[in-house]
Amino acid sequence: MAKRAAKSGDKEIRESLIVVGCEFLNVRELPSETSRPRAVVRKGEVFECLGYRPDWVHVKLSNGTTGFVMQSFIEKRVADGSD
Question: Structural domain of residue 29, as residue ranges?
C-alpha cells in the first residue's frame, strides 16, 4: 500500500487513510457530492492521502486511481517507515 511520506526529525512519517464511517464510499472526480464517481472503496480499505480541501480529501487508491472522498467518512492512520 502506498503512503504519503513526510519528515519528522530523522524519522519518516507516512500518512494513510482508512474508510470507517460507512460500508461503501464513492471516490469522486471532483470535491463535490454531485461529481461523477471514479471508484468505490469499502469500509476498512486503506489508501494514500494526496491533500486536503474543505470537507474533502484528495486520495490515491492502490490501483493508481485518484479522486476525492468526504472527510467525515475516513480516519487517519499514521505509521513510521518500519512497516
Answer: 4-80
Counted domains in the chain = 1
Cell of 39: 471508484
> Residue 21 is part of a domain; what is its CATH number?
2.30.30.40
82 near 30, Cβ under 8 Å?
no
- How many CA atoms does the CB half-sphere of 63 hold within 13 Å? 8
Kindly state the cell numbers that stand for 49: 492521502
For 50-72, how does the pLDDT look when each residue is reduced to its tens digit (9 = 90+)?
999 999 999 999 999 999 999 99
How many CB atoms are located within 10 Å of the residue 32 CB?
11
